[in-house]
């Protein structure tokens, strides 16, 4: 199981507002909800699942701004792929909370 943090920034849109793009990208996550877990944050989205599935979803997400008029898209991803034990978003948060 892997966890990916993804930030997608459409460029060349003619506006500084990105909410419409974020909403359209979010639709990809909703369509994949049976295969992945996700958590939107104010600055990025965290997705959890099998690595191949996550990378396929990120690829779909990356295409959305182009499909809606963006001339350039900058996508940043961070992958946490731990193989010595099963890790989840909730488990990672619980681990820190236990230490507080």
Automatic annotation (TrEMBL):
Name this polypeptide is given: Uncharacterized protein (TIGR00106 family)
Domain Thiamine-binding protein: 5-97
NCBIfam families: MTH1187 family thiamine-binding protein (TIGR00106)
Regions annotated as coiled coil: none
InterPro entries, per database record: MTH1187/YkoF-like, Thiamine_BP, UPF0045_domain
Any one cellular-component term (Gene Ontology): cytosol
Family: Belongs to the UPF0045 family.
Superkingdom of the source species: Bacteria
């Amino acid at each position: 199981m892997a966890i990916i943090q993804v930030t997608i920034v459409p460029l060349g849109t003619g506006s500084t507002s990105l909410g419409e793009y974020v909403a359209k990208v979010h639709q990809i996550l909703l369509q994949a909800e049976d295969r992945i877990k996700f958590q939107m944050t104010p600055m990025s989205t965290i997705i959890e699942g099998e690595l191949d599935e996550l990378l396929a979803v990120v690829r779909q997400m990356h295409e959305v701004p182009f499909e809606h008029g963006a001339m350039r898209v900058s996508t940043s991803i961070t992958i946490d792929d731990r193989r010595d034990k099963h890790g989840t978003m909730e488990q990672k948060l619980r681990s820190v909370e236990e230490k507080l």
